[in-house]
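Long-time lurker, first post. I've been practising inverse folding by hand and with some scripts of my own, and I keep getting stuck on stretches where the structure tokens seem ambiguous. Below is the full token string for one chain I'm working on. Before anyone asks, I'm not after the true native sequence, just a reasonable design that respects the backbone. If someone could post their per-position residues I'd love to compare against what I wrote down in my notebook.
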């Protein structure tokens, strides 16, 4: 029996051969992301950080130029391109598997032309009507996240009848539209979008019912890293745990995600998650060594 998670077709070899949950290291080339904003804004520091993430256990890196923190305003397309393309290109040239975190088809295209192997679209195609056609043409794996609106409005959109049912229904609308526009269904990854138009209890309910997502048959990506709901779960006397002290909690989510069959976890600090996914794999019996 295979213990490998369901993964998308079309991955670079190093990821296609992986028999465990993959660990994606995050590079936010932004001045204002909630956890690492401003730290990697210079291309050279972002590139160095990419190599450091790989040395620290990441299997791939996710490069984004637009902050998605609640309340953030959008940036112009040329600014997004200026931030991400040199970083994508330098890392991809050195053989690092790269995914591009963007809601813009033009940025996705430029990044793939610069060497990116995966498109990670937090809007699941809802922010740019040309995204699906471009992804279909590029032929790369496509991560479609559940999303209800841009960062400056998402706090007001966190209302659900039944969060698991609603998120799956809305995500499937996007996935079906992607397929109708020519995206290969075997290249689609789904992501419940933790923290995006979701309150803490919504995130926990989505994680609690992880099996409802695996039942859909698509590979799954989980992005819980250092998010606010983890800070609240660790609060003492109502004081949330500070952002930079949430990595152990992130790694705990990694253990559970990998146990439940996630294809990939997206994290800031890969070492703990890498160790965690190796332990889960050994526990499941996937490692014969
Ligand atoms: N979260 C953030 C950004 N991009 N992409 C996917 N697929 N899933 C996520 O949960 C996700 C994402 C925001 O977190 P950050 O500011 O720490 O990068």
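-- Answer (accepted) --
I ran through it position by position. Result:
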């Amino acid at each position: 029996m295979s213990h490998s998670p369901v993964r998308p077709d079309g991955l670079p070899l190093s990821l296609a051969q992986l028999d465990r949950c993959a660990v994606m290291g995050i590079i936010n080339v932004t001045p204002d992301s909630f956890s690492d904003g401003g730290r990697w804004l210079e291309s050279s520091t972002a590139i160095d950080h990419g190599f450091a993430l790989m040395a620290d256990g990441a299997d791939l890196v996710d490069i984004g130029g637009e902050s998605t923190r609640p309340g953030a305003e959008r940036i112009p397309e040329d600014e997004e391109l200026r931030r991400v393309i040199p970083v994508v290109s330098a890392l991809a040239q050195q053989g690092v598997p790269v995914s591009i975190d963007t809601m813009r088809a033009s940025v996705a295209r430029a990044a793939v032309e610069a060497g990116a192997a995966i498109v990670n679209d937090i809007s699941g195609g809802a922010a740019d009507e040309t995204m699906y056609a471009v992804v279909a043409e590029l032929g790369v794996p496509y991560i479609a996240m559940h999303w209800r609106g841009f960062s400056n409005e998402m706090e007001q959109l966190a209302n659900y009848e039944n969060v698991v049912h609603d998120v799956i229904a809305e995500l499937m609308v996007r996935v079906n539209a992607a397929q109708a526009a020519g995206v290969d269904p075997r290249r689609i990854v789904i992501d419940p979008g933790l923290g995006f138009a979701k309150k803490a209890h919504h995130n926990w309910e989505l994680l609690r019912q992880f099996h409802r997502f695996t039942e859909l048959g698509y590979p799954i990506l989980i992005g819980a890293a250092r998010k606010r709901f983890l800070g609240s779960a660790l609060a003492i006397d109502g004081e949330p745990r500070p952002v930079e002290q949430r990595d152990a909690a992130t790694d705990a989510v990694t253990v559970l995600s990998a146990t439940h069959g996630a294809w990939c976890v997206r994290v800031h600090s890969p070492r703990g998650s890498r160790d965690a996914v190796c332990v889960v794999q050994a526990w499941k019996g996937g490692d014969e060594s």
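A couple of notes from the structure itself: The first strand starts at residue 22 and ends at 28. The chain has a mean pLDDT of 95. Happy to go over any region you disagree with.
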